[in-house]
Amino acid sequence: MRIALFITCLADTLYPDVGKATVCILERLGHEVTFPQGQTCCGQMHVNSGYQRDALPLVRSYVAAFDGCEAIVAPSASCVGSVRHQHAMVARQFGEEKLARRAEALAGRTFELSELLVDVLGVEDVGAYYPHRVTYHPTCHSLRLLRVGDRPYRLLRHVKGLELVELPEAEACCGFGGTFALKNADVSTAMLADKMRHVVDTGAQKCAAADSSCLMHIGGGLSRLNAGVGTVHLAEILASTRDGSFR
Amino acid sequence: MTHGTGHLRGDEPFPAAARRALGDTQLRQNLGNATRTIRAKRARVVAELPDWEPLRDAGQAIKADTMAHLDSYLEQLEANVSRRGGIVHWARDAGEACQIVCGLVTATGEREVVKVKSLVTDEIGLNDALGAAGITAHETDLAELIIQLGHDWPSHILVPAIHRNRAEIRDIFLREMRGVDAQLTDEPAALAEAARQYLRRKFLSTRVGISGANFAIAETGTLCVVESEGNGRMCLTLPETLITVMGIEKVIPAWADLGVFLQLLPRSSTGERMNPYTSMWTGVTPGDGPQEFHLVLLDNGRTAVLADPAGRSALHCIRCSACLNVCPVYERTGGHAYGSVYPGPIGAVLSPQLTGIENNASLPYASSLCGACYDVCPVKIDIPSMLVHLRGKHVEAVRSRRTVPSAEAITMAAASWTMARPGRFGAAQRVGRLGRVLARGGRVRRLPPPLAAWTRARDAPEPPIQSFRQWWRAEHRSQRQ
Hints:
The complex is a heterodimer.
Chain A: E1 2-5, H1 9-14, H2 16-28, E2 32-34, H3 44-48, H4 52-66, E3 71-74, H5 77-85, H6 87-93, H7 97-107, E4 110-112, H8 113-120, E5 133-136, H9 140-145, H10 151-157, E6 163-165, H11 180-183, H12 185-202, E7 206-209, H13 212-225, E8 230-233, H14 234-239
Parallel strand pairs in A: 1-2, 1-3, 3-4, 5-6, 5-7, 7-8
Chain B: H1 14-22, H2 25-47, H3 52-68, H4 70-83, E1 87-91, H5 94-108, E2 112-115, H6 119-123, H7 126-132, E3 136-139, H8 142-149, H9 166-176, H10 188-205, E4 208-211, E5 215-217, E6 222-227, H11 231-237, E7 241-247, E8 251-252, H12 255-269, E9 277-282, E10 292-298, H13 302-306, H14 322-326, H15 328-333, H16 344-355, H17 372-376, H18 383-401, H19 407-419, H20 422-432, E11 439-440, E12 443-444, E13 460-461, H21 468-480
């Protein structure tokens, strides 16, 4: 299958390894990955901060970049959530019905990584090897916007060498919330403190998730505390093999 | 259409009020314990019902129909209450409602009233208005009594004293409750018994009762109050005069609709299969119960909420407070930080719409948009989408008011311009890579404004040498060679 990668602006800029890992997994499974050069950002930050008007050009650019793609994958539940639940809404808000319909069609072909692997490609064992003790934080938008359910866990359970430990109060928000982390920094870090306590309590070496944004938040807190626990994206785990790193 | 007045907004923006609340470790502990307990109870009883999702759909559909025809249902309610001997009053705002109620009590010649727990009377500040008119209001719900005696303010829709633990409650009783046993312990049973003894005297001697309403049935003119303690039943049956204040959105079309809500409400709010007391009354029954019944129908900004198709479902709320109990923000700040009698996620969408967004602008931002509220709402109010809608309304209002755009608006517009074209975005990424000079050991410990709030408690990642985009290009160039 030919799959277009939507890297997302955050992973493109700050976490390129997440993109490389996504490419690595899909190519290992025998698929062709393309990278439409016109892509930039889904516009979620603008929409969620109230700047829907400024999100419109970004919706337009997403639609232009990916039009005609058979399947699109993004290593971010929250960006896929934005494509699926916000793009058409923003277009309609400014009377762009044609754009809204094209956005809807693309939204139906845009998948979060675990959705693509489990639902579209029908694989749970991607042949990964990751000999670490890992706890998984199911991000809010993967849980409650995309409803990915146990798909990430099914993928992780097939990873050789990986010991998956349950995260207490796993479904609670880490406190990121986009500009919420800046506008309500005190509440955000209070939420983060509880999330970090639970992560540290598991004794895991790594905290994994399907969103680089939430991982940036949790990882930023753990790093400040020198907690000795790192963060890793689901894609990076699934890309790792006995032969070494995917990088 | 007028906006709502009364206790719907705080004196300071949410982030400032929240910061103070976060510093109160006792408060955070009380809230954490209480919300964790209620969350677990709710989850247990909701899981028992195989038709929970269809029930939510039914609740949502009934409310949507009600709001679409609110004018005719209200007139039907008025006609049926009047036909059964009740008297209906219409109040535009908090001031008008208080004036009506004070006038009615004064006309009876009484100087004291007993009250059933009621959010709407807190919304309009009725107790203060009664006090100013020389009338003493006695709260009879245990938690409301704790609040009243503690000269405090409710912090939760269902559990107004959730921010108090039992030691604090004992201290309030010892200090404020006349005739209380000086040896009072902080055992829940002992505290409840002290309140019971104190309240019993008020029930038997007071001749005017004041209540809110959970539901009002248009087709019969029946009012309904659900409660746990039986104090409501006393207030609704013992006095000679009963005055009920209700928001106009509380009407439901038919008797049969009540069956849906009486399944949704207790399981969502207290985590019980059924609440202990459900009182219903229709007008006046000669020789039984209050012989004078007044119904005050309050707008106070509700019509303005109704006017916005993307915001009106905030009026569907049945005040179960399930959204408060699952909200990670509420759990840490408590209700006072929201500055309104309606706190938590539902308050963050309802209060700003009642007062007008320009008067309550910080509340729609008091959420990480985690979506937990939407999942538990018994009438499926899409609170996260509504928060985003209200943020958009606020941004547009600011945009049209200011001649010079705000710093935030400039940042957002610049980000939009940059990211609308991959070339511009690539250039910005290369500039952003200069951030590497801030990094030490792979992390950035301090960022400049507007990102400084991030690094107060969190490190930022060091920007990589190469973006994904650059890596891809390099990779595919070498493959082609």
